[in-house]
């Protein structure tokens, strides 16, 4: 699959915490850094996300907000 998004990070699923509607997915990316994503429970199940699965995180930059005091 080809995407126009340039912000793509390869990683491995460390943990999937399933809620009633969403799932919290924790990935380990290059250098041992961790990335956390909240996705729908349906998407997590459709992607068959399990610990150890190799995935690619695609980041839409307009959705990332950072703030310091």
Features:
4 strands, OB fold (Dihydrolipoamide Acetyltransferase, E2P), 9% helix, 1 helix, mainly beta, four-stranded antiparallel β-sheet, 69 residues
CATH architecture label name: Beta Barrel
CATH superfamily: RNA polymerase II/Efflux pump adaptor protein, barrel-sandwich hybrid domain
- Helical amount: under 10%
Give, in order, the helices and strands. EEEHE
Question: Looking at the structure, what is the overall shape?
Answer: globular
Proportion of strand residues: 35-45%
- Report low-confidence residues grouped into runs of 5 or more: none
Radius of gyration, taken over Cα atoms and rounded to an integer in Å: 13 Å
Helix-strand makeup class: mainly beta
Strand order of the largest sheet: 3-2-1-4
Question: What is the CATH class?
Answer: Mainly Beta
Number of continuous helical runs: 1
What's the total count of β strands? 4
Distance between the termini: 40 Å
Fold-level CATH name: OB fold (Dihydrolipoamide Acetyltransferase, E2P)
What kind of sheet is the major sheet? 4 strands, antiparallel
- Assembly state here? single chain
Number of domains: 1
Mean pLDDT equals 89
Task: Provide a compact summary of the structure.
This protein has 69 residues and is mainly β. The chain has one helix at 41-46; strands at residues 8-18, 22-29, 34-40, 54-58.
């Amino acid at each position: 699959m080809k995407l126009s998004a340039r912000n793509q990070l390869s990683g491995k699923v460390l943990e999937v915490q399933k809620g009633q509607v969403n799932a919290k997915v924790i990935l380990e990316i290059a250098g041992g850094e961790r990335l956390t994503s909240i996705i729908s429970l349906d998407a997590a199940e459709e992607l068959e996300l399990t610990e150890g699965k190799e995935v690619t995180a695609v980041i839409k930059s307009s959705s990332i907000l950072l703030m310091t005091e």
